[in-house]
Specification:
By secondary structure, the chain is of the alpha+beta class. 27% of the residues lie in helices and 39% in strands. The longest helix is centred in the last third of the chain and has 13 residues.
Length: 134
C-alpha cells in the first residue's frame, strides 16, 4: 500500500486501536477516536462514561511512551481486507496552542466533540513508522 493511500485511510478512519505497554510490561489495547495532523496523531480523553479521566493508557504512557495505533478494514470478501499500523512516541499534552489545535481538529472530525468537548488531556503521537497490509 502506498504512503498516500495509508495516510488517506488513517485520516478517514473513525476508530483506531491504541496499544500501550503497562508498567508490568503487558500490552494494553483500547479503541479510540483520533485524527492525523502534521505528522502526528492526536487522541483526547473524552467524555464517554469512565470512572475517571486518569486512564490506564495515560499511566502507561508516563512509564513507556512507545505506542502503536492500528486501523483496519474487515469485510467477508477477504480480497478487500487491509490494516495500517502507525508506531510512534506519545506525549501527554495539556492546555496550550498544540492542545487547542488538536481539540479543534478533533471537533472538526467528530460531531460529538463539538457538542461535548473532551475534558481530559490529549495524547499526541509523534509518528516514527507506518506499516500496512496488503
Amino acid at each position: 500500500m502506498d504512503n498516500t493511500t495509508m495516510r488517506r485511510r488513517v485520516q478517514e478512519a473513525r476508530v483506531g486501536h491504541l496499544a500501550t505497554v503497562t508498567t508490568g510490561g503487558l500490552p494494553h489495547v483500547v479503541p479510540c477516536c483520533f485524527m492525523l495532523s502534521r505528522g502526528a496523531l492526536y487522541s483526547a480523553v473524552d467524555a464517554k462514561p469512565k470512572a475517571t479521566v486518569a486512564l490506564r493508557r495515560l499511566e502507561n504512557l508516563s512509564a513507556n511512551p512507545s505506542v502503536s495505533l492500528l486501523v483496519d478494514h474487515y469485510v467477508e470478501d477477504w480480497s478487500a481486507l487491509w490494516w495500517i499500523r502507525v508506531d510512534g512516541i506519545a506525549r501527554i499534552i495539556g492546555p496550550g496552542a498544540e492542545y487547542n489545535r488538536a481539540l479543534s481538529e478533533l471537533a472538526a472530525k467528530y460531531e460529538q466533540y463539538r457538542r461535548e468537548p473532551p475534558p481530559g488531556p490529549v495524547i499526541a503521537v509523534d509518528i516514527s513508522a507506518w506499516r500496512a497490509w496488503p
